[in-house]
Amino acid sequence: MKSLSIVLPLVVTAVLPVSSIADESKQTKIERAMSAAPSSISENATIIDTDGTLLKQGTNDWTCLPDTMPGDKAPLCNDETWMKMMQAIGSKSDFVADRIGISYMLQGEPKGSGVSNATPHHANHKHAEDYVETGPHLMIIVPKNLLQGIPTDPNSGGPYVMWGDTPYAHIMLPVSLKGKQVVTNK
User: Fold this and answer.
1) Is 90 among the domain residues?
2) What is the C-alpha to C-alpha distance for residues 2 and 56, in angstroms, rounded to an integer?
3) Which domain of life does this protein belong to (predicted)?
4) Are both 104 and 44 inside the same structural domain?
């Protein structure tokens, strides 16, 4: 995607607070980014840093990042549809899903790096009433009418809808890995 250098700074500054990035080697960031998805996807994905810097040019249509925000060590890998949604979130633009989009976060997020389940633009995610840390998961974008019947409660014991009343509604699909689980403020 040619506009990656624009996409991520918008997401980082508009969605989540920016913190300083510890000096890490390019290879360390690439390896962490690749750990977000199955190797069949991540080995050939484009790897970019949270500031939009290209770390590795890929040969498939996937983009992996070492962090969802600077320094949080929560890697993710996105398909093209998910990257378009990230750009919309960052610019607070409308987004309408017209196809399925997939994002992998198989490492989950570190404790204290969750978000509001209601909105990506919460003023203070860590203090949101609906704060949630999902642990290892996939995120799936579908046309909004296909979200009917899926719970919005992250403690429902399976997939749930995040950001449901926004244009950025998507399915969170927790995957079971020992020692990681959904955590909320409830």
Assistant:
1) no
2) 14
3) Bacteria
4) no
Block means of pLDDT (10 residues each) for the chain, 186 residues, are: 43 41 80 96 95 95 89 90 94 95 91 86 88 91 95 90 96 73 48
Strand partners, 115: 132
Together in a domain, 113 and 180: yes
Q: Please, are residues 152 and 117 in contact by the beta-carbon 8 Å criterion?
A: yes
Tokens of 84: 């378009």
Q: d(Cα 7, Cα 87) in Å, to the nearest integer? A: 5
C-alpha 12: how far from its chain's center? 11
Distance, in Å, from the CA atom of 60 to the CA atom of 116, rounded to the nearest integer, reads: 31
Entry pTM: 0.82
Residue 13 included in any domain? yes
- Domain of 117 in residue numbering reads as 99-184
DSSP at 69:
S
